[in-house]
Amino acid sequence: xxxxxxxxxxxxxxxxxxxxxxxxxxxxxxxxxxxxxxxxxxxxxxxxxxxxxxxxxxxxxxxxxxxxxxxxxxxxxxxxxxxxxxxxxxxxxxxxxxxxxxxxxxxxxxxxxxxxxxxxxxxxxx
Length: 126
Fold this sequence. Notes:
Shape: elongated
Distance between the termini: 24 Å
């Protein structure tokens, strides 16, 4: 198995974790990714980043950066409680959840795989 394949598997697992765990917490209420505004932007960027693992390194790295930017944009949307809960908004302050951390770690793992691909492609000098 190539280093890129290993890092891509790690990155995909981290993306799955990012989708499954809460992205925000309002007291005892956990908010999943699908309840946040623009959630589809992160999911699309993450899928594009994973799909581009075999293309040119700058393109793949660009998609990883877009995935991180999309995760940050979506993560900042948790503060808009009226978009998440409708008319009744909890009177507690929101906290970011672990989903954002897993999303950023997924993009970092994707870039680490690209770096490993560059190292594997270099000729070994004696």
